[in-house]
Amino acid sequence: MPTPHIRAEKDQIAPAVIMPGDPKRAERIAHLLMDDAELVTDVRGMLGFTGTVDGKPLTVMGSGMGMPSATLYVTELYDHYDVQRIIRVGTCGGMSHDVKVGDVIVGLGAHTDSNMNQQRLPGLNFAALASFNLAAAAVAAADDSMTVHVGPILSRDHFYLEGASSIELLSKYGVLGVEMEAAGIYGAAAEFGRQALTVLTVSDHLLDHSSDMSAEDRETKFQGALKLAVAAALS
Length: 235
Ligand code: HPA
Prior knowledge:
With 235 residues, this protein is α/β, with parallel strands linked by helices. The chain is 29% helix and 26% strand. The chain has a five-stranded mixed β-barrel, surrounded by four helices. Strand 2 (38-41) and strand 3 form a beta hairpin. Helix 2 (67-79) packs parallel to helix 5 and helix 3 (132-140) packs across helix 7 (223-233).
Protein backbone atom coordinates (compact mmCIF):
# COMPACT_ATOMS: atom_id res chain seq x y z
CA MET A 1 0.00 0.00 0.00
CA PRO A 2 1.39 3.42 -0.89
CA THR A 3 1.63 6.57 1.26
CA PRO A 4 0.25 10.00 0.33
CA HIS A 5 3.57 10.95 -1.32
CA ILE A 6 5.15 7.63 -2.39
CA ARG A 7 3.26 5.27 -4.67
CA ALA A 8 5.58 2.24 -4.34
CA GLU A 9 4.35 -0.97 -2.78
CA LYS A 10 6.02 -1.81 0.53
CA ASP A 11 8.35 -4.43 -0.95
CA GLN A 12 9.48 -2.07 -3.72
CA ILE A 13 11.55 0.09 -1.36
CA ALA A 14 14.92 -1.26 -0.15
CA PRO A 15 16.08 -1.06 3.50
CA ALA A 16 18.83 1.37 2.37
CA VAL A 17 17.99 4.60 0.52
CA ILE A 18 20.34 7.09 -1.14
CA MET A 19 18.66 10.47 -1.29
CA PRO A 20 19.74 13.40 -3.45
CA GLY A 21 17.62 16.56 -3.37
CA ASP A 22 16.93 16.59 -7.10
CA PRO A 23 14.66 13.80 -8.45
CA LYS A 24 16.41 13.93 -11.86
CA ARG A 25 19.71 13.41 -10.08
CA ALA A 26 18.10 10.42 -8.35
CA GLU A 27 17.33 9.02 -11.81
CA ARG A 28 20.91 9.57 -13.02
CA ILE A 29 22.40 8.05 -9.85
CA ALA A 30 20.07 5.04 -10.04
CA HIS A 31 21.08 4.26 -13.64
CA LEU A 32 24.75 4.92 -12.87
CA LEU A 33 24.76 2.48 -9.95
CA MET A 34 22.26 -0.17 -11.02
CA ASP A 35 21.64 -2.06 -14.28
CA ASP A 36 18.30 -3.23 -12.91
CA ALA A 37 16.97 0.11 -11.56
CA GLU A 38 13.18 0.30 -11.79
CA LEU A 39 11.01 3.36 -11.27
CA VAL A 40 8.92 2.66 -8.15
CA THR A 41 7.44 6.08 -7.40
CA ASP A 42 6.87 9.38 -9.18
CA VAL A 43 4.24 11.18 -7.10
CA ARG A 44 4.57 14.95 -7.74
CA GLY A 45 7.60 14.18 -9.92
CA MET A 46 9.62 12.93 -6.93
CA LEU A 47 11.27 9.99 -8.67
CA GLY A 48 12.39 6.88 -6.79
CA PHE A 49 14.17 3.83 -8.23
CA THR A 50 14.98 0.44 -6.75
CA GLY A 51 17.49 -2.12 -7.96
CA THR A 52 20.58 -3.92 -6.72
CA VAL A 53 24.25 -3.05 -6.29
CA ASP A 54 26.55 -6.07 -5.89
CA GLY A 55 23.44 -8.15 -5.21
CA LYS A 56 22.25 -5.83 -2.40
CA PRO A 57 18.93 -3.99 -2.74
CA LEU A 58 19.11 -0.20 -2.92
CA THR A 59 16.59 2.59 -3.47
CA VAL A 60 17.58 6.00 -4.84
CA MET A 61 14.94 8.68 -4.35
CA GLY A 62 14.78 12.48 -4.40
CA SER A 63 14.04 14.47 -1.22
CA GLY A 64 13.20 17.85 -2.70
CA MET A 65 14.72 20.99 -1.27
CA GLY A 66 14.50 22.07 2.35
CA MET A 67 13.69 20.35 5.62
CA PRO A 68 9.87 20.20 5.28
CA SER A 69 10.15 18.32 1.97
CA ALA A 70 13.00 16.03 3.03
CA THR A 71 11.41 15.29 6.42
CA LEU A 72 8.11 14.36 4.82
CA TYR A 73 9.71 11.76 2.53
CA VAL A 74 12.09 10.27 5.11
CA THR A 75 9.25 10.01 7.64
CA GLU A 76 7.18 7.96 5.17
CA LEU A 77 10.24 5.85 4.26
CA TYR A 78 11.13 5.06 7.89
CA ASP A 79 7.59 4.74 9.20
CA HIS A 80 5.69 3.01 6.40
CA TYR A 81 8.41 1.34 4.32
CA ASP A 82 10.56 0.24 7.28
CA VAL A 83 13.67 1.79 5.75
CA GLN A 84 16.66 1.29 8.05
CA ARG A 85 19.16 3.82 6.70
CA ILE A 86 18.98 6.93 4.59
CA ILE A 87 22.06 8.59 3.16
CA ARG A 88 21.55 12.07 1.78
CA VAL A 89 23.92 13.03 -1.03
CA GLY A 90 23.99 16.63 -2.08
CA THR A 91 25.89 19.84 -2.45
CA CYS A 92 26.69 22.51 0.11
CA GLY A 93 28.26 25.91 0.43
CA GLY A 94 31.71 25.82 2.03
CA MET A 95 31.91 27.81 5.29
CA SER A 96 35.43 27.12 6.51
CA HIS A 97 38.78 28.26 5.11
CA ASP A 98 39.92 24.64 5.45
CA VAL A 99 37.25 23.51 2.97
CA LYS A 100 37.62 23.99 -0.80
CA VAL A 101 35.14 23.69 -3.67
CA GLY A 102 35.12 20.06 -4.84
CA ASP A 103 35.92 18.71 -1.34
CA VAL A 104 33.60 16.20 0.33
CA ILE A 105 31.97 16.75 3.73
CA VAL A 106 30.56 14.00 5.93
CA GLY A 107 28.01 15.77 8.14
CA LEU A 108 28.39 14.30 11.63
CA GLY A 109 25.86 16.72 13.08
CA ALA A 110 23.71 19.55 11.76
CA HIS A 111 23.06 22.88 13.47
CA THR A 112 19.90 24.50 12.21
CA ASP A 113 17.90 27.72 12.24
CA SER A 114 14.74 25.68 11.57
CA ASN A 115 12.43 24.88 14.48
CA MET A 116 11.31 21.52 13.07
CA ASN A 117 13.24 19.61 15.72
CA GLN A 118 12.17 22.01 18.51
CA GLN A 119 8.67 20.76 17.82
CA ARG A 120 9.80 17.18 18.48
CA LEU A 121 11.22 17.80 21.95
CA PRO A 122 9.81 21.10 23.19
CA GLY A 123 12.18 23.03 25.44
CA LEU A 124 15.29 21.26 24.15
CA ASN A 125 17.89 22.27 21.61
CA PHE A 126 17.84 18.94 19.78
CA ALA A 127 21.25 17.52 18.77
CA ALA A 128 20.76 16.45 15.14
CA LEU A 129 23.34 13.71 14.73
CA ALA A 130 24.34 11.29 11.99
CA SER A 131 24.72 7.57 12.68
CA PHE A 132 28.27 6.80 13.72
CA ASN A 133 28.43 3.45 11.90
CA LEU A 134 27.37 5.04 8.61
CA ALA A 135 29.83 7.91 9.02
CA ALA A 136 32.65 5.45 9.78
CA ALA A 137 31.78 3.33 6.72
CA ALA A 138 31.68 6.42 4.49
CA VAL A 139 35.02 7.73 5.72
CA ALA A 140 36.62 4.29 5.34
CA ALA A 141 35.66 4.32 1.64
CA ALA A 142 37.55 7.56 0.91
CA ASP A 143 40.58 7.38 -1.36
CA ASP A 144 43.52 9.65 -2.17
CA SER A 145 41.68 11.30 -5.06
CA MET A 146 39.36 13.19 -2.70
CA THR A 147 39.65 15.50 0.28
CA VAL A 148 37.12 14.48 2.93
CA HIS A 149 36.17 16.58 5.97
CA VAL A 150 34.15 15.14 8.84
CA GLY A 151 32.28 17.42 11.21
CA PRO A 152 29.34 19.75 11.79
CA ILE A 153 27.29 21.32 9.04
CA LEU A 154 24.47 23.87 9.07
CA SER A 155 20.97 23.21 7.73
CA ARG A 156 19.25 26.51 6.96
CA ASP A 157 15.67 27.34 5.98
CA HIS A 158 16.63 30.26 3.73
CA PHE A 159 18.93 29.94 0.75
CA TYR A 160 19.12 33.68 0.04
CA LEU A 161 18.46 35.43 3.34
CA GLU A 162 21.57 36.10 5.40
CA GLY A 163 21.44 34.21 8.69
CA ALA A 164 21.66 35.66 12.19
CA SER A 165 25.17 34.26 12.77
CA SER A 166 28.01 35.49 10.58
CA ILE A 167 29.82 33.03 8.35
CA GLU A 168 33.06 33.89 10.16
CA LEU A 169 31.52 33.05 13.55
CA LEU A 170 30.08 29.76 12.28
CA SER A 171 33.44 28.96 10.71
CA LYS A 172 35.16 29.67 14.06
CA TYR A 173 32.80 27.12 15.64
CA GLY A 174 33.96 24.51 13.15
CA VAL A 175 30.96 24.52 10.80
CA LEU A 176 32.19 23.09 7.51
CA GLY A 177 29.32 23.73 5.10
CA VAL A 178 25.73 24.89 4.69
CA GLU A 179 22.84 23.02 3.09
CA MET A 180 19.10 22.75 3.70
CA GLU A 181 18.03 19.20 4.68
CA ALA A 182 20.30 17.27 7.07
CA ALA A 183 18.93 18.46 10.44
CA GLY A 184 15.40 17.49 9.39
CA ILE A 185 16.50 14.05 8.21
CA TYR A 186 18.50 13.42 11.41
CA GLY A 187 15.47 14.42 13.48
CA ALA A 188 13.25 11.89 11.68
CA ALA A 189 15.93 9.18 12.04
CA ALA A 190 15.95 9.81 15.82
CA GLU A 191 12.14 9.67 15.94
CA PHE A 192 12.08 6.20 14.39
CA GLY A 193 15.34 4.85 15.87
CA ARG A 194 16.86 4.43 12.41
CA GLN A 195 20.09 5.51 10.75
CA ALA A 196 20.94 8.56 8.66
CA LEU A 197 23.97 10.27 7.16
CA THR A 198 24.69 13.24 4.90
CA VAL A 199 27.57 13.28 2.40
CA LEU A 200 28.06 16.56 0.55
CA THR A 201 30.17 17.94 -2.27
CA VAL A 202 31.20 21.56 -1.75
CA SER A 203 29.72 23.30 -4.81
CA ASP A 204 30.32 26.92 -3.84
CA HIS A 205 32.10 28.82 -1.10
CA LEU A 206 30.54 31.47 1.08
CA LEU A 207 33.94 32.98 1.90
CA ASP A 208 35.20 32.86 -1.72
CA HIS A 209 32.60 33.05 -4.50
CA SER A 210 35.26 33.12 -7.24
CA SER A 211 35.64 29.34 -6.99
CA ASP A 212 31.94 28.36 -7.28
CA MET A 213 31.08 25.30 -9.44
CA SER A 214 28.95 25.55 -12.56
CA ALA A 215 25.67 23.65 -12.74
CA GLU A 216 27.37 21.08 -15.04
CA ASP A 217 30.26 20.62 -12.59
CA ARG A 218 27.77 20.01 -9.79
CA GLU A 219 26.47 17.05 -11.79
CA THR A 220 29.85 15.52 -12.62
CA LYS A 221 31.88 16.28 -9.49
CA PHE A 222 29.61 14.54 -7.04
CA GLN A 223 31.06 11.10 -7.83
CA GLY A 224 33.37 11.11 -4.80
CA ALA A 225 30.53 11.88 -2.40
CA LEU A 226 28.38 9.25 -4.11
CA LYS A 227 31.07 6.60 -3.63
CA LEU A 228 31.11 7.30 0.13
CA ALA A 229 27.31 7.30 0.29
CA VAL A 230 27.05 3.93 -1.47
CA ALA A 231 29.70 2.46 0.87
CA ALA A 232 27.67 3.66 3.87
CA ALA A 233 24.35 2.46 2.39
CA LEU A 234 25.63 -1.06 1.74
CA SER A 235 27.86 -1.40 4.84
N1 HPA B 1 23.23 27.32 0.98
C1 HPA B 1 22.35 26.35 1.12
N2 HPA B 1 22.37 25.23 0.42
C2 HPA B 1 23.36 25.10 -0.47
C3 HPA B 1 24.31 26.08 -0.66
C4 HPA B 1 24.25 27.25 0.12
O1 HPA B 1 25.08 28.15 -0.01
N3 HPA B 1 25.16 25.64 -1.62
C5 HPA B 1 24.72 24.43 -2.01
N4 HPA B 1 23.62 24.08 -1.32
